[in-house]
Amino acid sequence: MKSKTFVKRSLLFLLIAIVAIIPLVNQDEPLFIQASDERTEMAFSGDMSIAEKMEVILENNRLDGGITGVTVRHAATGEILFAENGDIRLHPASNMKLLTAAAALETLGADYRFRTEVLTDGRQRGEVLLGNLYLKGKGDPTLLKADLDQFAKDLKAQGIRNIKGRLIADDTWYDDVRLSQDLNWSDEPFYTGAQVSALTLSPNEDYDAGTVIVEVTPAKKAEGKALVNVSPETDYVKIVNRTKMVPAGETKKISIEREHGSNRIIVEGDMPVGGTLSRSWASVWEPAGYALSVFRKALEEQGIKFVGRSEEAFESAPEHAQVLVSKDSMPLSELLIPFMKLSNNGHGEVLTKEMGKVVHSEGSWDKGLEVIEDVVMELGVNQDTILLRDGSGMSHKNLIPSNDLTQLLFEAQNKDWFPAFQQSLPVAGVTERLVGGTLRNRMTTEPAKGNVTAKTGSITGVSTLSGYVTSLDGEELIFSILINNYLGSSGNIQAIENEIATMLAGHEFQE
């Protein structure tokens, strides 16, 4: 029996070596990932254990020089079926969101909603509001221009036509620290590093709070500049259009980036006649001012005017201020869908601050991270083995072992909020964006397709995948793959993650 197993494994290593030297046109293409899935299916037929199969996969030379932590547990018993560097602290990237989501569900509850209010410290006399108008945010990352438009319509319906006072943004629900402590300055102009404020605005229903969408389209002639549009329409940001129209057929090369420390968005590069749309989400500097600017425009569109001194300001609404209109967000269970499926960094940081506000009356990263740490300890994570620095996973200082991540996923199954948690995870190979999420273009064939539900993670040199899968014979498994310090293509590393998850999906346990 041993000699047969040895021969099998020798042949497998030879097959892998041959595949590894076959030249690939583009190792980032889905073709390579699919080939890996097929190779796994061919290689791992027979009586090999999970550990033996995993040993073959982890021999991949693309992992050389890095550190890979992998843990597989039985979902019913919690028994560790395989662990490689399972007790080594590694960077989780966006797998950190698993901790944040679990803590938010445990602390805030699946039905928790964020509120936004419009208040006044004055009184209404006829069509005139004598006093200041406050737009108070309490963390809602799903606030849209349409909501501000509705606020303006509601105020008009109350008979308000003129306001003799100031328009004021109140973002004091959280502290005034806008960026998490380890966020790279080079990430800050983009939606992945948007500033966190209790009063903020999203440009569309992806809910990337604190950003605007910038679109560049071609003009009709190969002269002058391309056309640039900002959504929602606002003069809070200033577009600096340095583009150049070029003849049809020439290469399109457009960049869109906000200057650090300002709201000047620089758009530059070549746009050919008949070229395709270029779109980018740019973060804004000080989101509360952005929300207030769009709200003022909404008021103007409803014919509501400010009389006399009408400059905008930023301060807390007084305690005696009266709420004129308000809006509650979708419940947390629904917010988890764009948060986890699309790996929305801003949602992770807002939830962190909100937990700090609710539990410790302080909407800060420090207090929010205290809450996350307390909750995950109750879910079996060892406090002495982790370091938590933000709620999204953008930090390169977050640390957690794969053993602990799988322990959290095991304990989460016993919580009444688990169905909402599980539903929020991306589903492999399902093309519908808010189902497949960041796994919609990965593992697109059976047995992994529609079976692997897991959170992805990716920052420079880090790729991760942790979640749930059912084996071919119906055994439910939990896994965590944390790959750190790799060089080269992220597609190649993700192919290894896919290979592991696909192997687990196709595994049959021997009687």
From TrEMBL:
Pfam families reported for this sequence: Peptidase_S13
InterPro entries: Beta-lactam/transpept-like, Peptidase_S13
Gene3D superfamilies cross-referenced by the UniProt entry: D-Ala-D-Ala carboxypeptidase C, peptidase S13 (3.50.80.20), DD-peptidase/beta-lactamase superfamily (3.40.710.10)
SUPFAM superfamilies referenced in this protein's UniProt entry, alphabetically: beta-lactamase/transpeptidase-like (SSF56601)
Keyword Hydrolase in annotation: yes
One GO biological process term: peptidoglycan metabolic process
EC number(s) on file: 3.4.16.4
Highest taxon of the lineage: Bacteria
Record keywords: Carboxypeptidase, Hydrolase, Protease
One Gene Ontology molecular-function label: serine-type D-Ala-D-Ala carboxypeptidase activity
Nucleotide-binding keyword on record: no
EC top class, as a word: hydrolase
Family stated for the protein in its record: Belongs to the peptidase S13 family.
Protein name per the record: D-alanyl-D-alanine carboxypeptidase/D-alanyl-D-alanine-endopeptidase
Provenance organism: Oceanobacillus profundus
Encoding gene, per UniProt annotation: dacB
